[in-house]
Prior knowledge:
The complex is a heterodimer of chains A (165) and B (446).
Chain A: H1 35-80, E1 88-90, E2 101-106, E3 117-127, E4 130-139, E5 152-155
Antiparallel strand pairs in A: 1-2, 2-3, 3-4, 4-5
Chain B: H1 3-9, H2 12-42, H3 69-93, H4 100-116, H5 124-136, H6 172-178, H7 185-214, H8 219-227, H9 230-237, H10 243-257, H11 264-278, H12 287-295, H13 298-319, H14 321-324, H15 326-334, H16 342-349, H17 357-379, H18 384-398, H19 411-414, H20 420-436, H21 439-442
Amino acid sequence: MSVREDTAAAPRGPWAWLPPRLRPREQRASEPRGRLWRVETLVLLAVFALLATATINDLVRQAHINHRLIADLATWRGYTHHDYKNVGVDQQTYGVATHVDVVCGNTEGGAPNSKTQICLVVNGPTRGGRRTVAGGWYLPPFTTDDVKSVRYGCFGSVTMGRCPR
Amino acid sequence: MSAAAASAQLPAEKRRVRWAPALAALCGLLALVATVEVVLDGAVEHSQLIPKQPAIAGWMSGIGERLGFRVFLIALLVAVGAYAGLLWLTSKFGEGALSKRFAIALVVALHAIVFAGPVLLSTDVFSYIAYARMGVEHGLNPYLHGPAAISHDPVFRYVGHDWRQTPTAYGPLYTLLSYPFAPLGVEGALWAMKVEALVASLGTLWLVWRCAIARGFEPVAALVAVAVNPLYVIYGLGGFHNDLVMMLAMMAAVALMLTPQPSSRREAGAAAIVVAGALIKATVAVLLPFMLLARRRLAPLLGAAAAIVAGALVAYAAFGSHGVNIVAALNRDAAFVSTDSFANEIAHLFGKPGVFPVDHDLLKAALVLIVLHLLWRTWRGYDWVAASGWSLLAISVTSTWLLAWYILWPLPLAVVSRDRRLLAATLAVQGLYVVHQLSPLLVPVK
């Protein structure tokens, strides 16, 4: 493949005072595959290996989370006997690493959040597509933030200290 | 001599070329079908992938079904497969596989499909409109207030929740360019933004073509590598992002520098255009030091300085000191973390829940080291276009806020750079990004 030179001649005069190893060079028409090229390529391959490993690890992690979400939703629907579509799962309340999720949905039909909500604290492994309900609480209609001050009717040992007294 | 005997005498390479156009046509068709599927399903109604928007593509809405993750990801994978096939064919057989006419027709068709359809995968375009309407219709400075300041405006309901309190992080030139669209109403402004993205994209592709010729590369292969790229078509063009306008400025500067007869005026103009690009979206400013180091002449330095002074004066006159201080906005946005960022993925790999402030500092340090190495390499004769592309790729990989259209930045440079590793690395990073999207396909959540 022919490559046309696209640069003007590099000025040599102003940089002549620099040692030869530090002087600028004209833009090359092709990249020599010397030692530096090989080192750079090795570094690039190592970085790619790290990024690829992290990506695959995150994909598998996300797939496991999705499995858990499916089980959480099935658990909420089975427990409440409501086959509602708008059910929210929160993994932050107890911390992502704990695998303890909080699943909230309306106690009766209506727009999302428009009715009293029941929140279930779900933990443990998935068995038969469901997980264990370890407790829960209620939220008033139109609650947007599930925080301690608005919760009531806490039940189950895992909710100790999660409701205002 | 019989036809069979003649065929047997053809060199193996030529015989392979005989099936290459058919395979290229099939790949082109698959890319079109995948794009049509996404656009038609996206036109039905908003979903997790399609933002709420005015009914600009309502006439298409009766054909498809609501776009879900499964269909979208299958279409994306088909488009990626078709793209990979076209890349291989054009790099191996050049115009023997894909004629200029066919390549241009394919690119025009992809652009037409996306242009006619709804806004895909991002609410950003509504933020652009909101900032324009804040300035023109409400007399508010978009560098001081977020769209929440105009919550009564009709565009507000379409602005993404995460951005409602956020003042603009875009350059003052882009904000001023978007001002004439504000009086057109939300729908009119949206169409204007779509036209702007379309023109910017076609302009960028034309410049890619010219730069490829200037460097002695196969222009069809360069065009296909950018214009049929699924992330470019579906995410970049489909979201009508202003990154396309930034990329137009970037490639205009590169094209000026690669002209066969370089002149001081052209070099000064190229440097000034890079500054103008940075006043659209600041990232492109990274080209400037490499351009200056490669030339080591006064003209581009003067061009850049003049453009910076003019830009700062205009920005100050229009928006006050906040319009000039783009660095503050960039620092603010650099603190965000997206689930797709490699930094976040690496944190998960090492058992951390996410990115911490110290990680931001480490990533910035890594980026500085990479750029310093590239500056040194450019000083010693390395291709400045490739060095600029590597820097843009490094910015996106080290960013904790990574979006699909960010990894498009280095692509036009990669296809005209003299270091083919850059194209391989850019496509590899894009491939990893696509792989990371696939979890809803593996375990769908309903």
